[in-house]
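Me: Here is a favour to ask of a fellow structure person. Could you put it straight underneath, so I can go through it closely?

Assistant:
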Amino acid sequence: MQLVELALIGVPVIAAGGAGVLATFRPPGPRVTSGLQHFAAGVVIAAAALEPAPGSRA
């Protein structure tokens, strides 16, 4: 692997680890939790919308 690839992989890993440690000491409030859940739902809906219908592949 090249250094750029390792950096692109490492940044989200470090961010997720840091967020987990932060959430351990200071849990997110209801508004932050709601915002994160809405964001995750939007990602799921977008992924489902981009998935082609079965049998429609050329």
About this structure: The radius of gyration is 17 Å. Helices lie at 3-25, 30-50. The mean pLDDT is 87. The chain has one domain: 3-50.
